[in-house]
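Review session, final week

We close the course with one last complete record, chosen because it touches almost every idea we covered. It is Cytochrome bc1 complex cytochrome c subunit, a protein from Streptosporangium nondiastaticum with 269 residues. Go through it on your own first, then we will talk.
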Amino acid sequence: MKKLSARRRHPLAAVVVLLFALAVTGGLYAAFAPADTAKADETAQSLAIEEGKKLYSVGCASCHGTGGQGTTDGPSLVGVGAAAVDFQVATGRMPLQQQGAQAPRKKAIYSQAEIDQLAAYIASLGAGPSVPTKDQYSPDGADIAKGGELFRTNCAQCHNFTGKGGALSNGKYAPDLTDVNPKHIYEAMQTGPQNMPSFPDTTMSEKNKKDIIAYLDTVNSSKSESPGGLELGGLGPVSEGLFAWIFGLGALIAVAIWVAAHTAKAKKS
């Protein structure tokens, strides 16, 4: 007992007890604590990239190359980012059915889970725009009036002022934006697919993109009313001018003929 008491009074006794307690605590934590979240996320991302590479090899490599470097049949995908993949594949534009002036929108052949895996693989080839979150593209709380101003300035030349689409040169066209998912509109602005210029955050802020999405959501809503009366399809001044020429000028010609006919009758009588 005297030896034990002497050891307890030793200057290093407290340090030994502390080290022992730390070792026991660390061992218990390692045994019972959940797996590290960051490590789990890294593992899940690696699996997604691996599965995405398999899907890519089957459905994309023949045009874009085995490593996404591009070929004569398809551009390089290095650096296009996950957002470009999500847009092109989720809207059915890719895989391309046949070569043409422009890839048309059609039913997607991949599930969203598979699209996410493809996007993860392409993103691993080089840094690029990521898939936006719902907070980024949701029109809630956005400035609709500002969105209309931005859309008319930057987009209406091709898509018409309410997003109904329009023809371009050499068989190309600006698609109708009426029923497009807000996420895909945001991704299109970020990545600039096909003939469209890109509007990254350095050119157009995230808030401005939300404003444009809110404007399109409002003007194309089934509950939206045209304050100017009959909207004539919302196609802009061409359809309005055509209406004026056909019906307006036609009505004037009809009135002129009626007046001339009745004037001739009056002279005869």
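Two points worth writing down before the exam:
The two ends are 148 Å apart (CA to CA).
Residues 88 and 94 are 5 Å apart (CA to CA).
Good luck, everyone.
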